[in-house]
Input
Amino acid sequence: MDQKTKCIWKNGENNENTWMCFVKKFTVTDSFAKAITHIAVDSKYWLYINGKLAIFEGGIKRGPDKHSTYYDEIDIARFLKTGENTIAILVCYYGKHGFSHLDSGRGGLLFESHIGGNVISSDESWKVKKHPAYVEADEKDEKSNFRLSESNLYFDASKDITDWYKEDYDVSKWDNADVIEDVLEYWGSLHKRITPQIKDLGYKNYLNSDIYKGYVTSRKETIKVQLPYNAQITPILKVTAPKGKRISIKADNYVDSLYDTKSVMSVYYTKDGYQEYESLGWMNGEYIYYEFDEGITINELGYHETGYDTEFVGSFTSDDPFLDKLWDKSLRTLYITMRDNFMDCPDRERAQWWGDVNIEMQEMLYALDEKALLLYKKGVDMMARWTKESGYMLTVVPSGKDQFELPMQNLAGILGFWYYYTYTGDASLLPQAYEASSHYLKLFDMEDGLVAHRKGSWDWPDWGDNADIAPMENAWYYMALESCINMASYLDKKDEIDFFLQRKEMIKNSFDKAFWKGSYYYKKTDNNCPDDRANALAVISGLASSDKYKDITKILEHTMNSSPYMEKYVLDALCEMGQIDKAIVRIKDRYKEMVNFNYSTLWEYWNQDGTLNHAWSGGPLITMSKYIAGIRPIETGYKKFEVRPYLADLSHVKCTVPSAKGPINVAIKRDEDRYHMELTIPEGSLAYIYLPFSNPETLNKICYKYDVTEDNCAFLQLESGHYII
Output
């Protein structure tokens, strides 16, 4: 985008939650095949061209770094015509910071479109009007909590400028736009967004909408309508009412039960007669509550579903309904926590906590298409840019509110950088990821061969009690060092590797001496007992040798300290020790209440305190696809991968994994004394197959060359193709 493009707004209108209407009429005479258009705003926009909605909720929250703003690049050619055209843009300026948004202090619109030989750009010829129907909040209502940059919306239909975005609407009496000369002082440099536009899933009726058609409220009352699953929606109403009646709209996730904080809500004040309204501030939930004044006739209640533009391409099914339901709930929880950025939750915070992101990234690699990868890459880019500015790695960016450093979440994120590359083969993020990681790891001090405790903003190894911080921190740091070494080696920074190798060796030589107590790892806990998280991290880091696995397994079977966040790593450790059956037992014990609860997403905690849709709880999705179905890369980007299923008590498993080479499809079935496998290997991949057997005679049925492993598996190497074994 041309940095010289003029930014327009209406002077003096920079209050919180300001909505501004812009209109530009112009004539197209030249032929054109494309109309590449750049749009930047603080904070969101809705684009109409010739009366048709072209972009729903364009723009993404500010904060590539502390001094930059994103812009969109779109092609609007299909909406244009030869002759006179009308572009109308509704811009919402949040006007406040949040945990996922850095407010610039200045609303504005930058627009530039190349149409044939013409350029249409934002300047003083555009017409502008502050939307009068977006009115001040009712002082009796609570505001959205301080973590959210989004405000509650109050819309007075009697002040609406209906159809202002259509071609025949007369805007001649509107003001000309004001040019904001110093916008770059507020907005900084402009960066093209890499994530797709929001996915529009269209208008839908609630599951129980029909029963309220024609209903007339006789008193102030609340109507509860149901969605098919936890979704990101903008609620819609069609009613007949006298002027001045109030309708408030909230989702079931409006109140956080643990912190008693409020999410976003919407309030609509009626005009006289029939009217329709869509509240453009998205909310989420499985139930929506409309509170009506008396005397309102409900014609229809519905919603507009939107979300991050990705497809559900991975899958897992088995003969165990519990596991299947948990996999699906994990996926739904993952999806509800994606939009402008990966989120911890879509109601209380909408914030990109890096510990959550690391788990979300690993889930998406087993469940979503390649467009989901862009959201992670955007997050890494932010992380690296903010690290450079702050001098250390921040755990939540882009935040205009508090700046947090939670070292163990950051170390998990560093581990994730190389994990992502291993699965995708995408090295484009490695240079900036390495720079941020290497700088951060050098900030840690060493004492007696171990990493010294770095408190950060506060001590946070995990939610819950009895965390054994010292071994956990050293294991995380050890794994982050390994990731940094791998990145340095790939980037040919051999002169920098020795520092990390030396630290890694120091921890390796000191870890057991400091923490191994004969049958478990331990330093200090509140209850003076070993911690499942510390012992699990010792395993997955490689610091625990295999001769300790039997003892550590006992700890992980019976100790239940971890929150849903760290549970993923406990399950990883059990699986890496070959105890997948025990991981399944633990899953069924710990997730029983969440799975049986009639809700499509997973909770923040083991009870229903906190949010009911929290990203970090979906670790079992990875366990099922990676270890039970047994599909995981053994060479970067799935050039080579293994299929090593473990069915435990299951009789069949079917799994699809969206690998970097293409979809991998595996169906394995066990009956009596033999296993049957159907397998699709994508082009360019080599698969290492481990097929269990109990009766050696069944090996005679294998039509391909194989070897026999010590643990009674037929081992096959197969190239791309479809196989029945």
Q: What stands out?
A: The two ends are 55 Å apart (CA to CA). The chain has 14 helices and 31 strands.
